[in-house]
Amino acid sequence: MAATSFRKKDTKSASFTFTKEHLKILNKEHALHLCGKTKSYNWEEVKEIIRGKRTM
Prior knowledge:
Layout (H helix, E strand, L loop, with lengths): L2 E7 L2 E7 L1 H15 L8 H8 L6
Antiparallel strand pairs: 1-2
């Protein structure tokens, strides 16, 4: 089974097909995130981290 993810930026779109191994990794990371062991960042937070204005 493969899943496809679509992301649209401006007027362009792209697709990527996930393998079973990709899905296994994503499910593991998702479970860690749900129990509070990992954190997500929005794009503004990511830019601040990269520029050294924010810590992780």
